[in-house]
Design goal:
CATH architecture of the largest domain: 2-Layer Sandwich
Distance between the termini: 50 Å
Protein name: UvrD/REP helicase
GO molecular function: ATP binding; helicase activity; hydrolase activity
Pfam families: UvrD-helicase
Largest sheet: 6 strands, mixed
Helix content: 25-40%
Number of domains: 3
CATH topology of the largest domain: YaeB-like fold
CATH superfamily of the largest domain: RelE-like
Strand order of the largest sheet: 2-3-4-5-1-8
Order of helices and strands: EHHEEEEHEEHHHHHEHHHEHHEH
Keywords: ATP-binding, Helicase, Hydrolase, Nucleotide-binding
Number of strands: 10
Length: about 325
């Protein structure tokens, strides 16, 4: 059985107290070692729309929400009892019908507004806002990863509602809509092949990660607020795992993720070349120290790999030569 974690799990874990986090991590490790351990206190969530959601008792009040099938166990969310149950009741895990990527989809709730008569002087109605995506075909919206049940909301979105709507959508769909709204053309990932693992799709890998062993799970949970150690954007992963025959240059403005790509690329090269050493350089010792700290978080319990990775400032490289 594959054990996976979701970015929603690491986000929710980071919001708990230190003592609660320790208890959650212990429970997660136990699940990793034996997902069907009869000693684990699992409770099926009858009110959840997705019948594969289960609750795992962490402590008196903390509950871990997992999605359990015959082939996989996904750690989805953790919180205090009532909040955890409400989260699960409003979501479902599904494979997108167009992209083939696994998504945790927020269930669309229909809210009827109660209109109360008001006997006041009528004021002129303000002009209706233009709909941003009326011209976009539903087929295209699905290709961007918009869940089918949210198509009507997307088609009716305007400038006032877009940002709020984006918070309810998977990341790839939200990014595509914001790109369209600002006049850009979103990048579309190739649909998954028939019968392909929905968790292996590039869009799914930005939010789900298979934990191969306890050590990998330990690394992922060591710094739950540093999502970059576990989850990569598809564009970042493309550059990290690219097969280059020579020098390559990646340019981008501040905050676009160049440093994260460099760190993951260095680790990727070290793993792909087990008999080689990898050098990561930067302009100053201050930056080199910061990179060493990030690298330590990324490979904290892989000492043999760390021995073959070195981070130095350019002047330190010159002195050594």
């Amino acid at each position: 059985m594959n054990v996976l974690i979701s970015d929603t799990f690491t986000d929710s874990l980071a919001r708990l107290s230190g003592d609660e986090q320790k208890l959650v991590k212990t429970t997660a490790f136990d699940l990793q070692l034996n997902p069907v351990n009869p000693g684990m206190s699992l409770h099926k969530l009858d009110k959840a729309r997705d019948k594969h959601f289960w609750s795992v008792r962490v402590s008196g009040d903390v509950r871990l929400i997992v999605h359990k099938t015959d082939s996989s166990l996904l750690l989805c969310y953790v919180d205090h009892h009532d909040q955890a149950y409400r989260w699960a009741e409003r979501r479902k895990l599904e494979v997108h019908p167009t992209t083939g990527a696994a998504q945790l989809v927020e269930i669309r709730e229909t809210v009827q507004e109660i209109v109360v008569p008001r006997y006041v002087e009528a004021t002129p109605a303000s002009p209706a806002r233009a709909r941003l995506f009326d011209h976009v075909a539903e087929k295209s919206l699905l290709a961007y990863g918009v869940p089918a049940e949210w198509l009507a909301d997307v088609k009716s979105a305007d400038e006032d509602s877009l940002l709020e709507l984006a918070t309810h959508l998977p990341a790839e769909a939200a990014e595509a809509l914001l790109t369209l709204a600002t006049g850009g053309t979103p990048q579309v990932q190739a649909p998954a092949a028939a019968k392909a693992d929905p968790f292996s799709h590039p869009d799914a890998q930005r939010r789900f990660r298979v934990m191969q062993d306890v050590e990998e799970l330990e690394r992922a949970l060591a710094y739950p607020w540093d999502k970059w150690t576990t989850f990569l954007h598809p564009a970042q992963r493309q550059w990290v795992e690219r097969d280059e025959a020579g020098p390559a240059r990646i340019a981008g403005s501040a905050g676009t993720g160049k440093t994260i790509v460099a760190l993951h690329r260095a680790v990727f090269l070290a793993r792909a070349n087990p008999h080689s050493r990898v050098l990561l350089t930067t302009f100053s010792e201050t930056l080199a120290h910061a990179l060493r700290d990030k690298l330590r978080r990324l490979i904290s319990n892989q000492p043999k790999l760390a021995e073959r990775l070195e981070v130095l400032a350019m002047n330190a490289v010159g002195v050594r030569l």
